[in-house]
Design goal:
This is Carboxynorspermidine decarboxylase. The chain is α/β, with parallel strands linked by helices. The chain is built from 11 helices and 17 strands. The chain folds into 2 domains: 210 residues, Alanine racemase (TIM Barrel), CATH 3.20.20.10; 118 residues, Lyase, Ornithine Decarboxylase, Chain A, domain 1. 28% of the residues lie in helices and 24% in strands. Strands 1, 10, 11, 12, 13, 14, 15, 16 and 17 form a 9-stranded mixed beta sheet that branches. Strands 2-3-4-5-6-7-8-9 form an 8-stranded parallel β-barrel, surrounded by 5 helices.
Length: 374
């Protein structure tokens, strides 16, 4: 990939890698008859929606604006779930969404008249209280005191009239063995209600396109629930759609020394890839290695005033220079959708690589910072 002439910072999504992921997901659809939806909260690069809709059934949204984006550009199934809906947005949501999933029976009771008016399919998110994650409570919907979903103790079977499906989301970057564990909890706690349902949504967090992912177990899970309860099955992966399909290209602005060499980049962990700090995790870099593994080690940091705006410590075969370009890997997901303009930072451009051609899809400037303020 020729990136030397790219104006940085810039997210670059490679179309061939995106297609490779989509082909894997389409194969699951073809083998099971399930519906797979793009979770826009992870990847909302709508310029590639015409490509994605050739493979997937539609999208899922976390609020009105995502739902509108899908309605305008995807033209497939349009699902939505939110922990709570705003009164001034809910009617528009019903006009453009096919499935509306509620987080509580109180919200369902409140908005049931609109569901009847617009004749849309509605569901309830359940919480099977089955945590399969380790060390990342911030991403665990089954953590103690979670606000996500209705637990068995709070389930209202007397309010199921008009509810056509159940939804759960318990995973984050996990394999299908954790899905299997979750489904056992779902069946044990909510199985009797599934016979009354039309569909079941497995939510997201399925790392289906990861190299070590066990697709056969996923297929078993889908077919088991589909055949046992006569259900349509939905999945809502986000990362699996664009996993490893994009880079964040950045330039070294300066190199300073304070006990070690520190390279200051024109990209920021805090602004352009917040999950690096929130998760936290250390992104891979093309040609970068663990600290001290190669001769030249640097701490990579952003240009903001935040002292902790640090990407990590990396070593390289050759010394970095001011002007050196670096490629941070797996930056299509949870980057564009979460970036911000703290410190007045310029937002990275967005580009699409087709074959050997890199096309700038969108650029950002001062007005994009200004329009967020008053």
């Amino acid at each position: 990939m020729n990136y030397e002439n790219i104006q940085t910072p810039c997210y670059v999504v490679e179309e061939d890698k995106l297609i490779k992921n989509l082909e894997i997901l389409k194969d699951v659809i073809d083998k099971t008859g399930c519906h797979i939806l793009l979770a826009q909260k992870c990847f909302s690069m709508y310029s590639v929606y015409p490509l994605i809709r050739k493979y997937l059934n539609g999208t899922t949204s976390s609020g009105l604006y995502e739902a509108k984006l899908a309605h305008e550009y995807m033209h497939g199934e349009n699902h939505i779930y939110a922990a709570a809906y705003r009164e001034d947005e809910i009617e528009e949501i019903f006009t453009i969404c096919d499935h509306v999933v509620f987080n509580s029976f109180a919200q369902w009771e409140k908005y049931k008249p609109l569901a009847i008016k617009y004749k849309k399919e509605c569901g309830i998110r359940i919480n099977p209280s089955c945590s399969t994650q380790e060390g990342h409570a911030i991403y665990d919907p089954c953590a103690p005191f979670s606000r996500m979903g209705v637990t068995k103790d709070n389930f209202r079977d007397d309010l199921l009239e008009g509810i056509s499906g159940l939804h759960f989301h318990t995973l984050c970057e996990q394999n299908s063995d954790d899905l299997l564990t979750t489904l056992k909890a779902v069946e044990e706690q909510f199985g009797s209600y599934l016979y009354q349902m039309k569909w079941l949504n497995f939510g997201g967090g399925h790392h289906i396109t990861r190299k070590d992912y066990d697709i056969e177990t996923l297929i078993y899970c889908i077919k088991h629930m589909k055949e046992t309860y006569d259900l349509e099955i939905y999945l809502e992966p986000g990362e699996a759609v664009a996993l490893d399909a994009g880079y964040l290209v950045t330039t070294v602005l300066d190199i300073v020394e304070n006990g070690m060499n520190i390279a200051i980049l024109d990209t920021s962990a805090a602004c352009h890839m917040p999950d690096v700090l929130e998760m936290p995790y250390r992104p891979q870099i093309v040609g970068g290695y663990d600290a001290k593994e190669k001769p030249y080690t640097y701490r990579l940091g952003g240009p903001t005033c935040l002292s902790g705006d640090i990407i990590g410590d990396y070593s390289f075969e050759k010394p970095l220079q001011i002007g050196s370009k670096l490629l941070l890997c797996d930056m299509a997901i949870y980057s564009m959708v979460k970036n911000n303009t703290f410190n007045g930072m310029k937002l990275p451009a967005i580009a699409l690589k087709k074959g050997e051609t890199i096309e700038i899809v969108k650029e950002f400037g001062y007005d994009d910072f200004k329009m967020r303020l008053s």
